[in-house]
């Protein structure tokens, strides 16, 4: 796990986390942490790899190109729509991005194929390390909620598919404020929902730009950097980063 010089935490050499035999969980032993809640982007928890797998299934040999173009355009559209004050929800953004990506690659996208691609987002499940980590947070009294571009329907599907009912507080979808991250209106939702001080709410990002946005807003920020990517050159970085949810648990525990 990597910590920036500007990070507000100092990681304990020992006693940070204790594995619970047979459960795959990490205990948050010791005093209650300063961090009282964690706001999660979708993808530290939700595994998006089936999207590329479905693309390859439907477009053999072109699936990776399609998935990459689709993902890139998804987020570009969210930024452009927020800047132009022309918000539509992420489900529609995702469909629009898919149509454009297919056209840009000169792929034939029938209505049936488009539905199959879109439905993948309602079939996603959690990464294997996410459920035990989330249960450890809950057992330690740390509140958790999604703060995501996803619609409530998309988030509900992921929670249901992953057997995570009862873990999360109400979803903080950007639909609430009609502005996508990294707009400050999106990040502010956690302050309003949790009713805590800014320094008591950690933000868990899956993308470097989102980590930078949350840190610039003022949250203690952890980047779950599963791909091992470099930090974005945006003049601000997450307080710490790691490749797994176990690393996030250490970050929370070290805030005591």
Outline the structure in words.
The strands form 2 sheets. The protein has a 7-stranded mixed sheet with strand order 1-9-8-7-4-5-6, sandwiched between helices. The protein has a two-stranded antiparallel sheet with strand order 2-3. With 256 residues, it is of the alpha/beta class. The protein starts with a strand and ends with a helix. The protein has helices at 49-58, 63-83, 90-104, 111-119, 130-139, 152-161, 184-194, 208-217, 245-253, and strands at residues 2-3, 18-20, 25-27, 37-40, 143-148, 172-173, 201-205, 221-224, 240-242. The protein has 9 helices and 9 strands. The chain folds into 2 domains: 2-47 and 127-253, 3-Layer(aba) Sandwich (Rossmann fold); 49-122, Putative phosphatase, domain 2 (DNA polymerase, domain 1, Orthogonal Bundle). Helices cover 41% and strands 12% of the residues. Mean pLDDT is 89; it is low at 3-32. A hairpin with a 4-residue loop joins β2 and β3 (25-27).
CATH topology of the largest domain: Rossmann fold
CATH class of the largest domain equals Alpha Beta
Just name the CATH architecture of the largest domain.
Answer: 3-Layer(aba) Sandwich
Class inferred from helices and paired strands? alpha/beta
H/E element sequence: EEEEHHHHHEHEHEHEEH
Morphology call: globular
Overall helicity: 40-55%
In terms of DSSP E residues, the strand content is 5-15%
Average residue pLDDT: 89
- The termini sit apart by 18 Å
Please tally the β strands and state the result.
9
Low-confidence stretches: 3-32
Supply Rg: 18 Å
CATH homologous superfamily placement of the largest domain: HAD superfamily/HAD-like
- Total tally of structural domains: 2
Strand order of the largest sheet: 1-9-8-7-4-5-6
What composes the largest sheet?
A: 7 strands, mixed
What is the tally of helical segments?
9
């Amino acid at each position: 796990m990597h910590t920036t010089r500007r990070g507000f935490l100092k990681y304990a050499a020992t006693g940070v986390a204790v594995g619970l035999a047979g459960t795959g969980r990490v205990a948050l032993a010791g005093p209650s942490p300063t961090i009282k809640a964690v706001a999660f982007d979708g993808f530290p928890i939700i595994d998006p790899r089936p999207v590329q797998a479905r693309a390859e299934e439907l477009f053999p040999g072109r699936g990776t190109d399609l998935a990459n173009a689709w993902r890139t355009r998804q987020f570009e559209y969210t930024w452009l729509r927020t800047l132009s004050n022309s918000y539509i929800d992420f489900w529609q953004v995702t469909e629009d991005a898919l149509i454009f990506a297919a056209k840009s690659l000169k792929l034939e996208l029938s209505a049936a194929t488009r539905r199959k691609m879109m439905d993948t987002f309602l079939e996603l499940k959690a990464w294997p390390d996410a459920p035990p980590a989330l249960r450890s947070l809950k057992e330690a009294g740390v509140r958790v909620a999604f703060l995501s571009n996803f619609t409530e329907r998309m988030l509900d599907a992921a929670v249901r598919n992953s057997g995570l009912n009862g873990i999360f507080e109400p979803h903080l979808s950007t639909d609430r404020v009609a502005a996508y991250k990294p707009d400050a209106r999106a990040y502010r939702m956690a302050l309003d929902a949790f009713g805590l001080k800014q320094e008591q709410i950690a933000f868990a990002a899956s993308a470097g730009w989102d980590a930078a946005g949350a840190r610039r807003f003022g949250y203690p920020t952890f980047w779950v950097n599963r791909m091992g990517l470099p930090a974005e050159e945006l003049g601000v970085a997450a307080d710490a980063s790691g490749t797994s949810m176990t690393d996030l648990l250490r970050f929370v525990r070290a805030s005591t």
